[in-house]
Write a structure and sequence with these properties.
Shape: globular
Number of helices: 14
Strand order of the largest sheet: 2-10-9-8-7-3-4
CATH architecture of the largest domain: 3-Layer(aba) Sandwich
Order of helices and strands: HEHHEHEHEEEHEHEHEEHHHHEHEEH
CATH superfamily of the largest domain: Type I PLP-dependent aspartate aminotransferase-like (Major domain)
Number of domains: 2
Distance between the termini: 49 Å
CATH topology of the largest domain: Aspartate Aminotransferase, domain 2
Largest sheet: 7 strands, mixed
Structural class: alpha/beta
CATH class of the largest domain: Alpha Beta
Strand content: 5-15%
Length: 394
Amino acid sequence: MLSNLKPQPADKILQLMQMFRDDPRENKIDLGVGVYKNAQGVTPVMRAIKAAEHALWETQETKAYTGLAGDPAYGEALSTLILGDARDESRLAAAATPGGTGAIRQALELIRIANPDATVWLSAPTWPNHPSIIRFLKMNMAEYRYFDDATRDVDFAGMMDDLAGVKAGDVVLLHGCCHNPTGANLTRDQWQEVVALLEKTGAIPFIDIAYQGFGDGLDEDAAATRLVASRLPEVLIAASCSKNFGIYRERTGLLMAISPDAKMKPVTQGNLNFLNRQNYSFPPDHGARLVTMILNDEALRADWQSELEEVRLGMLALRQQLADELRQRTNSDRFDFIARHRGMFSRIGATPEQVAQMREKHGIYMIGDSRMNIAGLNARTVPVLAEAITEAGV
């Protein structure tokens, strides 16, 4: 049987990670892998996480299973953080998942059960795992224009023109904040127009929110998701705690499904439980329990929010420094978009050849489409990157 297997396409990000590891240069810069790093190049364990882990170690008396949907307290705490006043308990079903990727996979499985003919619409570009999972599940997929390579901004007119073609029952996947891979976000007014279009067409919004707190702040980054949840009858939301709690390896995610009315909530919840049972039975609990402890403890929550704000402001400072360095070197404002973008990523508009030149000559590693992880920089390496970008003629 196994002799019938064929090699799978190599993951470009994992390939890049290995190339970086194999590079012997001491001054190499990793801007490829999507994890936050501090100025020392370390992905730290946040203070509140360490404190919660210590408390858990002292008090936890069992490692028994929680439930098919995970600990209800986790779903309540995280959904409240994301949805705020837009959270309607009577219509909200939720299930813990192994990371945000697990939430996305379960949401797509749920869509396939509910409407096998639905087309899932993705922004062009989007996170590569989105189309990869959809293709694997053999679901219908379409793209809507999102990023304008010339302006390095959202092509909102193109987006709305493409989304005018969605049908009732189709699913539109939207990035809640800090768009990956571009860093270019919709404005509040543009979100209002998207919501109005979804109301008119009857399409279902599916929000991927993985970077809450990395852009403009916890509440500001959740504003679009809250708007959608407050206005539309059915909403799917895939959330991740990897970035804002720094617990990447704990694989801590949550899938939320807002039903059209309270009568449908038990059915929706039952389907979420069923899907968890089929895929991995009980979801992991360690990361989810730490998140719950932090969000429900005033002191831990305050310390977590303080450190998260330090991370956010640090990335904004790096964005501004890089934009300033490039303005000085190019005598042009064409890279000012870097300071306007939000989150970990920006796509700087380099060709694959220019990306390869920066890697070979300067040891700078970024994805071939020129998506770079801002959090992989520090004050010392920003001028190095700016010089490499200028020399490559981006």
